[in-house]
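Alpha-MPP
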Amino acid sequence: MRKASSSLVRQGQHLCKASLQRSLTTAPSPTVQITTLPNKIRVATESTPGHFSSVGLYIDAGSRYESPESSGVSHFLDRMAFKTTSTRTDAEMSAAVHSLGGQIMCSSSRESIMYQSSHFHQATPKALSLISDTVLNPSFLAEEIEAQRDAAFYEVREISSKPDMILPEVVHNVAYGSKGLGSPLLCPEDRINSVDELALRTAMKEWYKPERMVIAGAGMRHEELVELTDKYFSSLKSSPVLTSSQTRTSPQVPPHLLSPSSPAVTKSLTRAASYLFPNSVSDVINSWDSAYTGGHRFIADTTQEFNHLYVAFEGVGIHDDDIYALATMQVLLGGGGSFSAGGPGKGMYSRLYTHILNHFPQVDHCASFHHIYTDSSLFGLFASFVPASSGLRGGNTPSQILPHLVHQLSLLLYTPIPEAELSRAKNQLKSSLMMALESRAVEVEDLGRQVLVHNRKVPVTEMTDKIDLVKPDDIRRVAARVFGPKSGNKPTIVCMGHEETGAWEDVFTKYSVAGP
């Protein structure tokens, strides 16, 4: 990811093209306009006041669509953004980026790659020019790729040394295997030297098609962004092969802010997923379907200060009507660190705080998580705690902590959910949605991802109304569906640290929670 900020640059040129052909899609909100250009690239704007503008390009791409032979290309496309192009040297690109007076960045995730800029209003033409240049005209110089290899080696090793960042990746790999959603966000170390110009251009040829792109913006006139998009992206030709994203029924659930704030390599509220499945025509890069299998992995590391234990199950995908109940359940479980400067609004009354952290001082961190994707999700709990072998008083083995986590899941299955507790969780979820959208960058990213998914912007009032409809019986029903004894859903268990988990299957059997 690359960011830059500095002084204001004015760019006042306004493009007028009366003959521009476009079709306007009716939007659900009077502040949102969506236009599809002749080459099928979609342009969406939201009319909201502010001192800054933001614009972004959102592409249906990412590590989910990598094959074993192309593993790591998404990570390198991210790192190679805003380098030398056929029209700008690296120095010229860097100077232009720094002149925007805001931020410009690229980020890749499992199901999307985005290029986004936040800047002063008059810098929108320049920002979109830079985005189009790095997307359409990259040089991929050998020396720049080599420099990013060195940086990638450092990044991978740095993240691998931090359990809160690398273990969510391990959980995905154990849950889904080595393809699809199990593919790593970071380029594997043994692949770093294999990612070259050919691999990057092959990926871009496959993924960077206008029908798989959305340009979203806020802080500018819709007509201005349409004209700028036509100016900078009209050279892209749409593919004669329709992607399944154009034939998929639009879901009634927004894919954005339901993702957790749990630690991960990418942990923006809106970055847990984007949500399309292209039908690949490449023999090198494919859209891998993901099959959840569950499983167990122990990573022995006696250098760790704490043991780390993750328990996960396959949840429902973003298209499923139960997504709101599952998101509410995650907030209800809540959790956090053993020390918090916050109050009730920070989750201090959530179950993992009141039932785990407040009773077991040896537990340093305990929280729920929910990673949402198009056709699947990962829902679960994790805990970090003092090892029994540390010699410190109160140390525990994973086999001693696991029953407490599984017990919390069983309470959702077999005990009533108090109305007051559910109401608090729903209010916290609604609050997190609305407060996140106060950020202009999040607002634009949210708009781009929603249009990428289902060709419309879902109003926040529609989301909050659906959250309000969640009842206690819905929580218990969805809990039974995800990890009940009749769900057929196997757990994913990942442990890192000093001691193994032991006979973890017996714990699930004891509490009548879905087991092996």
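thats it. The longest helix spans residues 142-160. The chain has two domains: 23-246, 295-510. bye
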